[in-house]
Amino acid sequence: MSDVQFAAIETPSAGALTIEYRWLNRDRENAPLLVFLHEGLGSVAMWKDWPQQVCDAGGYRGLVFSRPGYGRSTPRPAHGKWPVDFMHRQAREVVPAFLDAVGVAHDEAHPVWLVGHSDGGSIALLFAAAFPDRLTGAVVLAPHLFVEDVSVESIAKTKTVYETTDLRAKLARYHDDVDSAFWGWNDIWLNPEFRHWNIVGAVASIGVPLLAAQGENDEYGTMAQMDAIADHVPHAQIVKLPDCGHSPHRDAPEALNAAIVAFIGPAGQSDQSENSLPAQSVA
After folding, report:
1. Which pLDDT score is estimated for 107?
2. Which 3 state secondary structure label does DSSP give 242?
3. Kind and range of the H or E element at 203?
4. Where is the AB hydrolase-1 domain positioned along the sequence (predicted)?
5. Could you report the per-residue pLDDT of 241-271, keeping only the tens digit for each?
6. 19 and 9 in contact (C-beta within 8 Å)?
């Protein structure tokens, strides 16, 4: 991608890092900004066209970036392992440092929304809990609040696929260091210590507007994740998508885009509360 740029950041845990990023519709200076946080094997390129589609649907600006270890960002150190609290560190160290580096500041005239998928959704939830003054709200797609058996079983199967098929070659199209991306994600999720990871307590403190969406056929998590959000963040809007797996933006983009635009509101319409959806299943 010729319009990809790079930002230098510094974090307490990882030191100096280079972050790959891409702006969408940057000329819409006063439009809401959607900052996209990818899943555990994602990157700027792996989002493909969906961020552009949803930004065009609502008239938004967009900012897509690859977290450390993914895409063309600084890879995971050789033989390094993500710690159990890696998503907390991403939310509290990497995301704020990156937003500062590229000049993103939230205020009434420049609303900022996080849009996170899977691990990126969990990171968005943790950021919303820790830095409520830095964003207008968040949209999370198939986030994890705790580890389920179905998650571990699916990730274990993916390990076998990576080792025995052409999956590695396919993922290498999207990551400069494909083994950094895959094994960083796979090793931590299959680490027995990670089975105790749980962010329900942190999520309960979220006060900003929150839309959570998940496919009813999600192979990496059950609706217990959505139910936990509904129980602990009563103001959250829940969308359960039928005939949809772990990636709503790929499996049900039209329904998802409509839900997001209805929740955030089209550009130029500032009162989000008038456009929020009730908890529902989208047919």
Report:
1. 86
2. coil
3. helix 200-203
4. 34-259
5. 999 999 999 999 999 999 999 999 998 654 4
6. yes
Phi/psi region, residue 23 (left: phi>0; alpha: psi -120 to 50; beta: rest), is beta
Rounded to the nearest 5 percent, the helix, strand and coil shares of the chain are 40, 20, 40
* CATH pick for 5-281 out of 3.40.50.1820, 3.40.50.2000, 3.30.930.10, 3.40.33.10: 3.40.50.1820
β-strand pairing of 5-11 with 15-24: antiparallel
Report the distance separating Cα 112 and Cα 63, nearest Å: 10
Residue in 228, 39, 280 with CA at minimum distance from that of residue 141: 39
Residue 120, CA distances (Å) to 26, 64, 65, 116, 155 in order: 22, 12, 11, 4, 16
CB 21 within 8 A of CB 4: yes
pLDDT tens digits for range 139-188? 999 999 999 999 999 999 999 999 999 999 999 999 999 999 999 999 99
Which has the closest alpha carbon to 282: 218, 223, 239? Answer: 239
DSSP assigned state of 278: P
> In angstroms, what CA-CA distances link 234 with 66, 264, 277?
31, 18, 13
**125-140 pLDDT, tens digit each:** 999 999 999 999 999 9
Domain ranges of the chain: 5-281
One-letter amino acid identity for 140? V
Report how far residue 263's alpha carbon sits from residue 251's, in angstroms, rounded to the nearest whole number: 20
